[in-house]
């Protein structure tokens, strides 16, 4: 087997542009983005997600959680959550997936 690595950096939202819920909302809020891997992992890879850019309102508390959910060999979802009076104008997330990849020399026997 061959170990593969996939990575990316994506903007999740820019809610300040159109007064979206992460910018003007209050209470529990959630944003999800589906990520598809360019290659196909043999099994569910280990996925790490982190905030690579936060643009927040300085007058409110910065409360957030960012995680990978619904991980499969084909992709996963980045989930960003906030609560209370936190206000996020823009958020970007970096992700890294590591797992077993198919090799060009692999073949299946039926």
Write a structural description.
There is one protein chain. By secondary structure, this protein is mainly beta. Helix content is 4%, strand content 54%. The protein has one domain: Immunoglobulin-like (Sandwich). It has one helix and six strands; from the N terminus they run βαβββββ. The strands form two sheets. A three-stranded antiparallel beta sheet has the order 1-6-3, with no helix packed on it.
List the helices and strands and how they pair.
Elements: E1 2-14, H1 21-24, E2 29-36, E3 46-56, E4 65-69, E5 75-82, E6 88-101
Antiparallel strand pairs: 1-6, 2-5, 3-6, 4-5
Supply database-style keywords:
110 residues; mainly beta; Immunoglobulin-like; 3-stranded antiparallel beta sheet; 6 strands; elongated
Order of helices and strands: EHEEEEE
| Average of per-residue pLDDT values | 93
What is the makeup of the main sheet? 3 strands, antiparallel
Going by helix content, strand content and strand pairing, the class is mainly beta
Query: Whole-number radius of gyration?
Result: 17 Å
The CATH class is Mainly Beta
Inertia-based shape: elongated
- % residues in beta strands: over 45%
Number of helices: 1
In helices, the fraction of residues equals under 10%
In spatial order, strands of the major sheet run: 1-6-3
Name the poorly predicted regions: none
The CATH topology name reads Immunoglobulin-like
Q: Based on DSSP secondary structure assignment, what is the total number of beta strands?
A: 6
| CATH architecture descriptor text | Sandwich
């Amino acid at each position: 087997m061959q170990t593969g690595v996939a990575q990316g950096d994506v903007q999740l939202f820019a809610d300040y542009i159109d007064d979206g819920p992460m910018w003007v909302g209050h209470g529990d809020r959630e944003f999800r983005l589906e990520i598809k891997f360019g290659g196909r992992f043999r099994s569910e890879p280990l996925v790490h997600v982190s905030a690579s850019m936060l643009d927040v309102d300085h007058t409110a508390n910065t409360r957030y959680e960012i995680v990978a959910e619904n991980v499969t060999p084909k992709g996963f979802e980045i989930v960003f959550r906030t609560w209370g009076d936190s206000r996020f104008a823009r958020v970007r997330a970096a992700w890294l997936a590591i797992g077993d990849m198919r090799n060009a020399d692999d073949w299946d026997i039926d």
